[in-house]
Specification:
single chain; alpha/beta; three-stranded parallel beta sheet; two-stranded antiparallel sheet; 5 helices; 5 strands
Length: 201
């Protein structure tokens, strides 16, 4: 997969997103597509005591109709930051590496970014630093139509699509004796496996 790839903006996306980035030479994040609801652009999944839990960032609803993702603003009238941070703490505070990485993620989420794309990018760069993956990431200069190209992952990495990515299983908090849970946020891997996380991508 070496070469150029195209990915969407994403909120603490699953391991697949970072696996794709780790193998690429040039990474472009789509900035000009029309915003899509119910995708990783504003949603992530963690593993709680009751199973997978969706965490969504609220955005101003009036701006959704054919609005470029770069212009989507976060709605702070809802206390989503406290909800997300409490949920992450409840899910992972007993994981081996939670105390090493949570503080930085908490600081970024608590910053009150105006645009969701800026929050997502800061979190992605922080995760790449944790994984020790050194990459230069740029934004697209205009929208490139979808043509089923091998390097285009904008709509393939999605909670609505079955992933072809199979992550090597690791120990998960709350998994107990059930099957391994795929499709979770990268923080599930990081909090559980710490410095070894990159070897699971």
């Amino acid at each position: 997969m070496a070469g150029r790839i195209l990915v969407s903006s994403a909120y603490l996306p699953p391991s697949e997103y970072f696996s794709v980035i780790s193998q690429a030479d040039e990474i472009l994040v789509e900035k000009h597509e029309n915003y899509l609801k119910q995708t990783y652009r504003n949603r992530t999944y963690i593993l709680s005591a009751h199973g997978p839990q969706s965490l969504s960032i609220p955005v101003y609803q009036g701006s959704l109709h054919k609005t470029p993702v770069k212009d989507i603003r976060i709605d702070y009238s809802k206390r989503w930051q406290q909800v997300h941070l409490r949920a992450m703490t409840a899910a992972y505070n007993s994981s081996p590496y939670f105390e090493f990485y949570f503080e930085n993620i908490e600081k970024i989420i608590s910053k009150n970014h105006t645009f969701i794309i800026d929050l997502n990018m800061e979190l992605i760069k922080s995760v790449l630093a944790i994984l020790k993956i050194i990459k230069t990431i740029s934004f697209t200069s205009d929208f490139e139509p979808t043509k089923n190209k091998d390097y285009d992952f904008r709509y393939r990495i999605s909670p609505k699509e079955e992933s072809l990515f199979t992550i090597k299983e690791y120990s998960q908090v709350f998994r107990q004796s059930g099957p391994f849970v795929n499709g979770l946020s990268i923080i599930d891997l990081i909090f559980n496996m710490g410095p070894d996380s990159v070897s699971y991508l």
